[in-house]
Amino acid sequence: FRIDQYSTWTADHQRLYEELLIRLTASAGLPLSWVDNLEFDAFISHFLPHAKPVSRKTLTRRILPNVIQQV
């Protein structure tokens, strides 16, 4: 069973996904490395199959600085 409600995954979807992911990571006090966990990857692949994977390195170098600039 796969949920394909976002069969047309856009750059805006990806941007929002990344922003919410870093906000969840910070608010829950999770280590940045949790996005590299194989079970997390399987979860995202199942429920958001069109989302591009995000690594700890991407969170740190690109996403976090962008979100901080918005604040």
Identify the notable features of this structure and list them briefly.
3 helices, mainly alpha
Structure notes:
It is a single chain. With 71 residues, the protein is mainly α. 59% of the residues lie in helices and 0% in strands. It has 3 helices and no strands. The longest helix has 17 residues, at 11-27. The chain is globular. The mean pLDDT is 90.
SSE layout and pairing:
Layout: H1 11-27, H2 38-47, H3 56-70
Give a quick summary of the entry.
This protein has helices spanning 11-27, 38-47, 56-70. It is mainly alpha-helical and 71 residues long. The model has no long low-confidence stretch (mean pLDDT 90).
Structural class: mainly alpha
Provide the succession of SSEs: HHH
Segments where pLDDT lies below 50 for 5+ residues? none
Shape: globular
Number of contiguous helices: 3
Query: Using DSSP, what is the number of strands?
Result: 0
Largest sheet: none
Computed CA radius of gyration, to the nearest angstrom? 12 Å
| C-alpha termini separation | 38 Å
Helix share of residues? 55-70%
The residue-averaged pLDDT reads 90
Strand content: under 5%
